[in-house]
Amino acid sequence: VPEPLSIGILYPTTWYGDPTGFDAAIKRLRGLDPTIEVRVVEYQEPPERRHRRQIGAADDALDETPPVSDEVADVLATAEILLAIDLPTDIVSRAPRLRWVQSASAGADHLLRLGLDRAGIRLTTGAGSNAVGIAEFVMGRLLEFWKDFPVIAERQAIRTWRPRYGRELAGSTIGLIGLGAINSQIAARLAAFDVQVLATRRSWSPGATAPNVDEVLPADRLHEMLIRCDAVIAAVRGTTSTEGLMNAKAFAAMSPGSWFCNVGRGTLVDEPALVAALTSGQLGGAAIDVQRHEPMADDDPLWDAPNLRLSFHNATAPTAMFRHLHTMFEANVVNYLVGAPMTNEANLPHAP
Predict the structure, then answer these.
(1) What is the pLDDT of residue 352?
(2) How high is the pLDDT of residue 348?
(3) Which CATH code, of 3.30.1360.70, 3.40.50.150, 3.40.50.720, 2.30.42.10, is assigned to 5-129+317-338?
(4) Is the dihedral of CA 265, 267, 273, 279 positive or negative?
(5) Considering only CA atoms, which of 177, 85, 165 is closest in space to residue 138?
(6) Which pTM does this prediction carry?
(7) Could you give the strand order of the β-sheet that contains 196-201, starting from the edge strand earlier in sequence?
(8) What are the residue ranges in the chain where pLDDT is below 50?
(9) Domain 131-310, architecture per CATH
(10) What is the distance between the alpha carbons of residues 290 and 292, in angstroms, rounded to a whole number?
């Protein structure tokens, strides 16, 4: 009798947003192979802790293992595969049979820092599962700025009949920092607006092209792109090469009165420089869904920055995202079973 292949689902199932849909997803997983057993239990750490781990904060408390329930410990002890948003700091010792972790989020730096690769444990991310939802959110923010919706709403609130006219987006130039799943979906939606789309890409090579993008530039020509754009949208990972990339020099390189949006990682932006650019009018507006410090402190200068739209790491559409995530996960399970490469592999494990 073959040994069961134990899969643990650890993220809060309420995030799926559809109990019937979640049950159907679990049933599909069990149907992929007769050896598969699926166990569902919740393990979630505070978002602030996850954020600090993602950005590599130096904090001894991050090395401590939060309390783990007996039920979670039991699942970890037998699991070969986990689908999770968080994992205990001592996951390697708690899960001796673990061979693969599917992250429930696109960013998995907080999991990479747990030593999975050194233990021979593969890690795949949920990159792309939230791309459509975030792209739609960005388009909403872009049109909000271009059409001056906030001023129109203010005049409605005070019952003032005074027309406020926006601008036409067509004919504008939009720059994309990074060309992963999110900005690729943004480019696809921009195609309907008759704009020119430029993009910088870390993996650029001469003659590089991309769907719905008019010109692809290498990452080291960022400032050359910035000066040509009416709006710039960033969606890149938080790495040493992107740390503080949008600083005072970058904002000064942008066209006066242009618009900036960040839906990648908060570490990309020098936030005092952003506030200064908005205050001086160098930037006409901005929208950021991610910040360096999450949650933001009550006295954070971002709260009062002029013409800045804040959101709180909520640009995605969770109910759609988790459907996409499970579709990706199911395909990866099939590939895992036959020894084929999996989508979004984030590490190359060393032999344990």
Answers:
(1) 41
(2) 60
(3) 3.40.50.720
(4) positive
(5) 177
(6) 0.90
(7) 215-218, 196-201, 173-177, 231-234, 258-262, 283-288, 308-310
(8) 351-352
(9) 3-Layer(aba) Sandwich (3.40)
(10) 7
